[in-house]
Amino acid sequence: QVQLVESGGGLVQAGGSLRLSCAASGRTFSSNAMGWFRQAPGKEREFVTAITWSGATTYYADSVKGRFTISRDNAKNMLYLQMNSLKPEDTAVYYCAAATVGAGTRQQGLYNHWGQGTQVTVSS
Question: Is 77 exposed, middle or buried (0-12, 13-18, 19+ CB in 10 A)?
Fold first, then answer.
């Protein structure tokens, strides 16, 4: 059974940092692009960042560019999201996902495996 399990969420003050992890099991995703998405209360789920299968190229939403860093360790089947300079508007449930393609993509429809999400709350 394929599973993506996020961890590392929590409550942090504005300006603080968190590191999210996503552990994949059931199969390897070393040939697949992966990404992070988030959903704030009352809002639709939105793209945050994506990384190609090799990790060579990354993509970021404008709202997080320069503050968030995505990375992956294919040997460990792990995906990470380092979040710095957090703002209250970053508060959301964060989901990791694996795409059906190797190239990075912002399109949610191209992601076919999703984690259950981890809550990130940033207080002002």
Answer: middle
Amino acid at 22: C
Token duo for residue 12: 């942090």
Q: List the Cα angle 16/5/96 in 5-degree steps.
A: 65
Q: 93, 92, 100, 84: which is closest to 115 by C-alpha?
A: 93
- Give yes or no for a contact between 55 and 72, defined as CB atoms under 8 angstroms apart: yes
Nearest to 57 by CA among 41, 38, 71, 42: 71
Cα–Cα distance between 38 and 16 in angstroms, integer? Answer: 18
Averaged over 16-31, what is the pLDDT?
Answer: 94
**Predicted local distance difference test score (pLDDT) of residue 104:** 85
What integer pLDDT is reported at residue 2 of this predicted model? 87
